[in-house]
Amino acid sequence: MLDKAMALLELFQPTRTDLGVVEAAELLGMPKSTASRRLTAMEASGFLDRDPVSQRYHLGIRLVTLGHLARQATPLQRAARSFLAALTEATGETSDLVLLRGREAVNVEAVESPRPMKHVGWAGRHIPLHATAAGKSLLAWLPEATAGALVELPLMSFTPRTIHSLEELLAELKEVRRAGYSTSIGEFEEDLVGVAAPVMNHLGEAVASITIGAPASRAGATAMPHLIRSVVDTAEAMSAKLGHQRRPRSS
Fold first, then answer.
1. Beta-carbon neighbour count of residue 168 at 10 Å?
2. Sign of the CA dihedral 235, 236, 242, 248?
3. What's the order of all strands across the beta sheet hosting 192-200?
4. Nearest to 82 by CA among 202, 240, 237
């Protein structure tokens, strides 16, 4: 039952904020009558609301309340908010806190850019590990065998610049670890540039990734050093708050 409810809730996205019965049935690949019963049950539980005029469903206030509590659920998320806000202020770009969940990276906190043209990040968004700066940052500090086992083969291609082989990915992860940060330039979305750095705990483990996403037009060669430095500084500051002792960089 829980799996069925989650499948229904996951149909709602920033680009699809409401659903009709027919649309839900088509997306779930089920009869209209079955979709109608499930939507009605979710409405009765308070997880969905239905517009009295359009008869379309949208997420209910109960989920909004639970979502707010979830975003404050862990010390990591609570600690991240001020760091992300400062990063967005420093760069003008959307910043995210990203965690590793199974074979995907998941945004768990976000501060959006105030600019009209921006990367839209949102809590709960699942993103691929091999095609994003955040994903590479999370993989790079894992043992190579573990990192290789986490990515699903064959690697899905999102743009012509997406990494297409495990060998290429593992080679890039070594460079990410050496540099201390990762980038994704048009690999997940053609006009999106990402920069990420790991958040380390007191054991030296990468427990999260701090990342920013920017339109390619604002992340050229002149802007990149500032974006990289800002992300790395933010990740290191948050790591220090978690008890990580930074080692001096090798020359």
1. 12
2. positive
3. 126-128, 104-111, 94-101, 206-215, 192-200, 182-185
4. 237
Fold of 2-66: Arc Repressor Mutant, subunit A (1.10.10)
The rounded distance, in Å, linking the Cα atoms of 209 and 212 is: 10
Residue listed under structure tokens 């890039």: 172
**Residue 52: enclosing H or E segment and its boundaries?**
none
3-state secondary structure of 106: strand
**If DSSP codes are grouped into helix, strand and coil, which group holds residue 145?**
helix
Confidence of residue 186 (pLDDT cuts 50, 70, 90): very high
Do 124 and 13 meet the contact criterion of CB atoms below 8 Å apart? no
Q: Is the pLDDT of residue 250 over 50?
A: no
For the chain, residues classed under CATH 1.10.10.10 are: 2-66
The answer, as to whether pTM is greater than 0.85, is no
Q: Which of 85, 71, 76, 86 shows the shortest CA–CA distance to 123?
A: 71
| Residues 121, 96 contacting (CB under 8 angstroms) | yes
Domain 72-241, what architecture? 2-Layer Sandwich (3.30)
Q: How far apart are CA 80 and CA 153, in angstroms?
A: 32
Residues of the chain with CATH 3.30.450.40: 72-241
